[in-house]
Structure formats: C-alpha cells, structure tokens
C-alpha cells in the first residue's frame, strides 16, 4: 500500500479538466475566507492549511484535485486534471473510491495483485496549486455515497501531526490541517480523550455522559445522526417516540424514523427519541438534543469492544459545538 504523505512541493498548473460525474466534481466559489497556507503568527511557525468544508447533503466532505488523472475524453486530447469530492468519516479506517470512478479514471493498482489504488499527487481543489498529498491510497468498492467519489478515513486524518480542525460554525465552514502542534489551536477548546478500539483498527471511541449515565460512543463525523442501542437507551432512561398508528412513510419523511441496512442487507428502523437527551463528554457540554434509538449495524460489527450500552456519535450532536479538532495521532479530540 502506498505511504501517503503531506507534501507542499510545487506542482505544475494543469487544465482543470472535466468531472467524472456532475454530482461529484464541483467548482469552488470565490471565497470570502482566505483558503490555503496560513501565515498568521498565531500558528507559531507551524505549517497550517485551510480549505472549505463542503456539505454533500448531511455529509461533511473535502474537495480534492488530481492533476495527473484524466477522464476518457481528456486522455484523447492529452489533457488531465480531475476534481472529486470525498466524504470524511472518522469511523472508517480505510480510504475508498467508488469502483466506477476508479475504472473511468484508470487509477492504477499498487503492486500486481494489490487491492489498493494509488491516486498519485493530490491538490486541495480550488485552494492551491501546490501538492497537498502524495501517493494517496484508496480501495475501490462497488457502492458508496452517490454524491461523492469516495471516502477519506481515519488513516487520512492521522497524516497530520497537529490534527485536523472542523470549523462547522464558521460563516464558511472549513477544514484546517496542522503539520504540527500549536498552542493557539487548543486555547479555546477542551480536550476529550480517545480510547482507540484496538480490535477495530483503532477507530476512535470516547466516553459520554448521557442523562448522567456513562456510555461508550464511536466518534462518527461521517454519520448525519446519533444513534443509541437499546441497552444504552434503557440505561439512560431514553424512550422512543410512540409512532403506533402513524404512516411509516410519513414518519420517514419528517425524520422520526430512519431506515438503514444491517450486515445482511435487511432494513433496520431507527426511531427518534421521545424527549431531548442531555449529552456531555468530560468538560464538554453538547446540550440537550434528540437522538435515535435502535440496533446500530456498524456498532454490532465492532466486536466485543462495543458490547453492552453503546452510541454512534454523529454530526447532529458534534455540530452543537462550534468546532472540533481531531488529533488522531495523539488520541485526543478537542471541542470549542
């Protein structure tokens, strides 16, 4: 597998190219925020890069550009340069790309019998011409979010020693990448320790206080909703909404029911809580928010480390705080 690394070497300016699918590649509007390398003295000499945080529906995403990749029409004219959007998910440990996109762009495998593909040089789309990463490795999968080309996982977020900050409360939501640690990055934040799930590739879990009861949670920024399993709901005294007699399609339309699939492809209903739920983590208060209750397929697959009461901590709760700094290398997550 290629060893992706942070790189800011000068890359040649190339034709922007065309999108593989119109839903994937998007133009970045002229920003009012200054994107790119930050030179402010507050960063204490540490290299810091700021990019737009996109929202593909309810999913956080980053736009990347690959100057050496090309669509079929570009290859016929000798041009290259393709822009793709990737969902960011802290609860995944493998970077992926949709198989049709990989095939259309003829992204090469690493090694003769490898299952990983090398995206090559990578730029921040619409932000800077310098290379942001080299040798970004991805696994090609047949399905995924239909609005994105693929997914960037914890492996991607671990590339940055100083962490990655999600500024979702800003006028223009942002992602800030720190090549090293700075005190200013955490001055206005409180730290919550991460307990890596060793049997699940080190995925990040934290301890929550839910209505005053301690529950383990998987940090899942790629999930639009927060879900607690039946045991956690019982422990914290959280009841589902009583939807008896209501039309299920209507309940889905207004968000009171969310239907997901389990590992066998069978539908699983997640039902909104009857009342708002008080959620804290260490000294961080997320306030009182509605959650969903149901058996969570992704947690059930995470071995015995998530046996018993458990929560999938999603974006609906995380955005109750103005920003989040994930220092994945140090097993820390900070909230302002």
Short recap of the structure:
The chain has 336 residues and is mostly beta strands. The chain is 11% helix and 35% strand. It starts with a strand and ends with a strand.
Give an overview in words.
The chain has 336 residues and is mainly beta. It has two domains: 181 residues, Cathepsin D, subunit A, domain 1 (Beta Barrel); 146 residues, Beta Barrel (Cathepsin D, subunit A, domain 1). 11% of the residues lie in helices and 35% in strands. It contains seven helices and 27 strands. The protein is globular. About 8% of the residues have low confidence.
CATH topology name of the largest domain: Cathepsin D, subunit A, domain 1
Shape: globular
Strand content range: 25-35%
Can you identify the CATH class of the largest domain?
Answer: Mainly Beta
Main sheet attributes: strand count, strand direction, barrel closure: 10 strands, mixed
Please, how many domains? 2
Which stretches are poorly predicted, pLDDT < 50 over at least 5 residues?
A: 8-33
What is the alpha-carbon Rg in Å?
21 Å
Helix content: 10-25%
The helix-and-strand class reads mainly beta
How many helix segments? 7
**Annotation, overall tally of beta strands:** 27
Mean of all residue-level pLDDT scores = 84
Query: Whole-Å distance between the termini?
Result: 36 Å
Give the second-level CATH assignment, the architecture of the largest domain. Answer: Beta Barrel
């Amino acid at each position: 597998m290629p060893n992706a690394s942070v790189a800011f070497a000068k890359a040649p300016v190339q034709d922007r190219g065309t999108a593989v699918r119109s839903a994937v590649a998007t133009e970045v509007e002229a920003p009012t925020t200054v994107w790119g390398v930050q030179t402010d003295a507050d960063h204490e000499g540490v290299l810091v890069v700021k990019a737009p945080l996109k929202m593909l529906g309810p999913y956080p995403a980053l736009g990347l550009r690959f100057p050496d990749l090309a669509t079929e029409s570009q290859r016929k004219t000798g041009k290259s340069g393709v822009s793709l959007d990737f969902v960011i998910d802290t609860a995944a440990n493998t970077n992926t790309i949709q198989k049709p996109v990989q095939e259309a762009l003829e992204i090469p495998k690493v090694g003769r019998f490898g299952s990983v593909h090398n995206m090559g040089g990578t730029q921040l789309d619409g932000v800077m011409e310098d290379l942001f990463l080299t040798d970004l490795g991805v696994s090609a999968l047949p399905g995924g979010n239909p609005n994105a080309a693929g997914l960037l996982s914890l492996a991607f977020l671990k590339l940055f020693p100083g962490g990655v900050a999600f500024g979702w409360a800003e006028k223009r939501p942002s992602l800030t990448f720190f090549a090293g640690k700075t005190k200013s990055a955490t001055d206005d934040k409180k730290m919550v320790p991460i307990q890596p799930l060793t049997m699940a590739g080190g995925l990040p879990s934290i301890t929550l206080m839910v209505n005053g009861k301690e529950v383990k949670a998987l940090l899942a920024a790629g999930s639009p909703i927060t879900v607690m399993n039946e045991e956690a709901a019982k422990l914290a005294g959280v009841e589902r909404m009583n939807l008896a007699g209501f039309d299920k399609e209507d309940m889905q339309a207004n968000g009171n029911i969310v239907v997901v699939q389990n590992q066998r492809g069978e539908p699983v209903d997640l039902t909104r809580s009857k009342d708002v739920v008080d959620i804290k983590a260490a000294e961080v208060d997320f306030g009182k928010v509605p959650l969903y209750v149901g058996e969570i397929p992704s947690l059930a697959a995470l071995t015995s480390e998530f046996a018993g009461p458990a929560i999938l901590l999603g974006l609906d709760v995380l955005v109750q705080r103005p920003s989040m700094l994930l220092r994945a290398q140090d097993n820390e997550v900070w909230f302002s």
